Amino acid sequence: MFVAATVAILVTMVLAIVRTLLGPTVYDRILAVNMFGTKTVLLIAAIAFMSGRTDLLDIALVYALINFIGIVAVLKFFEYGEFSRGGRGRP
Question: Is 9 inside any structural domain?
């Protein structure tokens, strides 16, 4: 059962990479990269469960946090063109 789930996660990761390469807009590509990161967390969790190594779940959680912060930073950069001061000349 978990092997089938892992294969399904890998298939959706391939689809996310295809969307990243072919996305019509920057926001579609960013969404696909976010989906790829989320599926990576799921893949790490499934591998941790199948191998019995619960220490991999800590790595999955850290990866999820890094993925979230990275996506927010990239979206802020594309929206405002900078990372500092909240964007668009606010004091």
Answer: yes
